[in-house]
Write a structure and sequence with these properties.
alpha+beta; single chain; 66 residues; 1 helix; 4-stranded mixed sheet
Length: 66
């Protein structure tokens, strides 16, 4: 499975996100594509099919306060 990250996603969290994706997604999308795209909007990561755009799941990022 190939994972593509939106440029806005910090490099230092990409490995952790990739591990989570590999645990959660065990087969290709129903369209047959095995490539994943991860985008970020307002501290929400959207993990979706690179080809058809079907969303697998969303993850809220914790923000550090203080």
């Amino acid at each position: 499975m190939k994972i593509f990250f939106d440029p806005d996603i910090p490099e230092n969290i990409r490995d952790e996100i990739a591990s989570l994706i590999k645990e959660q997604i065990t087969s290709p999308c129903k369209c047959g594509c095995d490539e994943i795209y991860v985008s970020m909007t307002d501290n929400i990561l959207d993990v979706k099919c690179y080809d058809c755009g079907e969303s697998f799941f969303e993850v809220a990022l914790e923000t550090e306060e203080g």
